[in-house]
């Protein structure tokens, strides 16, 4: 996997909206944070655009993202928020200049579309906090983003969980939002799970749909040859009047039971305040013991 150049003081970060609109005056905390890191900020043309739920038309969002990719002075593109819509602009993008001068693409949730697409192209990206989440992000989440962007050593140690499956595994981390992974299967942007560590998280889904999506991953062979699984937050899950009978983590536990691989549950990443950065496509080692779990990036 190709690693974009890590940031240095004086570099410029572009803030763009690839999906849901961002019409509020809410980016000053992000400006202040990036300036405190010695970085410059460019506000993309999609910020403030209003097309129903989206930040402008598909063409406008693609044009903004394209300009940031093609601008050699931009060293990272930070998506301001998720929602839905990134996939609608994906086929309008030309990655030719990006391949000549790769840069970091940063975000989570709907930005999983870009993480997965870049992974199929052979490029790393960063899953982590976004500008709209910075005011409520934990210091550890913010610190982890700084480490990921500047190429500092990145590792995590978390406490034990009764659902964890013991063991040790190494491989490139792939994945992101489970709903997005599910929606991309069968497309050119679908990730290759073979010998990888799969990360999943989700928000505001019905429990039966979590089961459906996990079964889809299973039937597509995505779970068969993994080196491990990291399960992030499953936030604000919904149930029907007739209960499904298991919560989201129990569903994941049940469907992954046949596979003899280490699994970390309740990892601090996803739609939570403590959303720690993950370098997608980067090789990492996870180790799960009764005393707790570690995830260490190479």
Low-confidence stretches: none
Strand residues, percent: 15-25%
Distance between the termini: 12 Å
Q: What would you say the CATH architecture of the largest domain is? A: 3-Layer(bba) Sandwich
Q: Any idea of the CATH class of the largest domain?
A: Alpha Beta
Name the quaternary structure.
single chain
Fold and architecture overview:
This protein is of the alpha/beta class and 298 residues long. It has helices spanning 28-36, 58-70, 86-90, 96-100, 112-121, 139-150, 178-184, 207-219, 248-255, and strands at residues 12-16, 40-43, 74-79, 104-107, 125-127, 155-158, 167-177, 197-203, 228-235, 263-264, 278-280, 283-289, 292-297. The strands form two sheets. Strands 6-13-12-7-8-9-10 form a seven-stranded mixed sheet. The mean pLDDT is 98. The two termini are 12 Å apart. Helix 8 packs parallel to helix 9 (248-255). It folds into two domains: 12-150, Murein tetrapeptidase LD-carboxypeptidase, N-terminal domain (Rossmann fold, 3-Layer(aba) Sandwich); 155-297, 3-Layer(bba) Sandwich (Glucose Oxidase, domain 1), CATH 3.50.30.60. The radius of gyration is 18 Å and the shape is globular.
């Amino acid at each position: 996997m190709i690693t974009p150049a890590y940031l240095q003081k004086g570099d410029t970060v572009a803030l763009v909206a690839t999906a849901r609109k961002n019409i509020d005056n809410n980016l000053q905390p992000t400006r202040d944070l990036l300036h405190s890191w010695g970085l410059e900020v460019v506000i993309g043309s999609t910020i403030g655009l209003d097309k129903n739920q989206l930040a402008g038309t598909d063409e406008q969002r693609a044009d903004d993202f394209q300009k940031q990719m093609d601008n050699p002075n931009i060293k990272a593109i930070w998506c301001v928020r998720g929602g839905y819509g990134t996939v609608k602009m994906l086929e309008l993008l030309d990655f030719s200049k990006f391949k000549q001068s790769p840069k970091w693409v940063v975000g989570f949730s709907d930005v999983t579309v870009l993480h997965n697409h870049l992974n199929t192209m052979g490029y790393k990206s960063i899953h982590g906090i976004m500008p709209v989440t910075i005011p409520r992000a934990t210091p550890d989440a913010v610190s982890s983003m700084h480490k990921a962007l500047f190429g500092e050593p990145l590792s995590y140690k978390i406490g034990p969980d009764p659902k964890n499956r013991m063991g040790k595994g190494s491989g490139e981390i792939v994945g992101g939002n489970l709903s997005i992974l599910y929606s991309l299967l069968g497309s050119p942007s679908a990730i290759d799970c073979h010998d990888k560590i799969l990360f999943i998280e989700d928000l505001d889904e019905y429990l039966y749909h979590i089961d459906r999506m996990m079964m889809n991953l299973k039937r597509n062979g995505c779970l068969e040859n993994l080196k491990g699984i990291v399960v992030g937050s499953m936030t604000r899950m919904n149930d029907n009047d007739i209960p499904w009978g298991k919560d989201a983590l129990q569903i994941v536990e049940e469907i992954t039971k046949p596979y003899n691989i280490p699994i970390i549950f309740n990892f601090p990443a996803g739609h939570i305040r403590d959303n720690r950065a993950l370098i997608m496509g980067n090789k990492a080692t996870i180790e799960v013991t009764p005393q707790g779990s570690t995830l260490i990036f190479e």
